[in-house]
Write the structure tokens for this entry.
Amino acid sequence: MAIRLGDLAPDFSAETTEGTIQFHEWLGDNWGILFSHPKDFTPVCTTELGTVAKMQEEFAKRNTRVLAVSVDTVADHHEWIKDINETQETTMNYPVIADPDRRVANLYDMIHPNANDTLTVRSVFFIGPDKKVKATLTYPAATGRNFDELLRVLESLQLTANHQVATPANWKNGEDCIVVPSIPNEEIAEKFPKGHTIIKPYLRTTPQPDI
Ligand code: BEZ
């Protein structure tokens, strides 16, 4: 069954390149990003895993643990990681789940049979500290993801979880935000002391509140 926003992220135990993990316990109080790769030793996936290794520190700074899943064995993953480190000029620094029986892939509905009946699509699940799914993305095998966009989404999710704002189209960290519609105009000044602009009664902006 499809996993929808607000659902509890299914827990599982799995072998990874960094040992066995129990997913919820491994997440602890952090945010998590679980993302799938169609297969080991494939070109797009190689660039994606290397890109995330280079960005891992940025995710860690935002209290976020990253976890990849691919439908091959731990032994295959370790061989592939040698290639990733060499070709992407990085050192892998986060776990990759070995999912040869597709247990995790099926649990998270990552196999879309009309696209491919054995390999996963490129799924991304953003999971909050409450273990609930906050955002998902799905790309086909031939389209590598933009991990700067994943970081941007994470920043928006973390901001909007703690402040009564939404982020507009193409928002980047540090830019003005939108005051959520549930706040009446007369309460904005008190709630957003940095100031605000009323462009339309339903379109009110304020400087990003957490910086
Ligand atoms: C890739 O990662 O390069 C890839 C995987 C499966 C199908 C097409 C491309």
